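Backbone shape codes:
===
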Amino acid sequence: MTPLAPDDAQRQGAISALAFQLLGGRDAALDFLNTEDAVLSGRPIAVATQSEAGYASVEREIRARSVLPGARHGE
């Protein structure tokens, strides 16, 4: 298994932290990030790691599912 490129690793860490914060904790975040998603055309963790555009798509989906008030609009 090859290590992630620095940009990919940064996106993976950032999307994981955002999911943990906005989706109600570790279990909900891991479930979302590792489950195939038809809207995103793949596992959110993989989609977000691959590119900035993928990261933005996953971020929007996390915010749409957020359990925190105000997070749905990027506030």
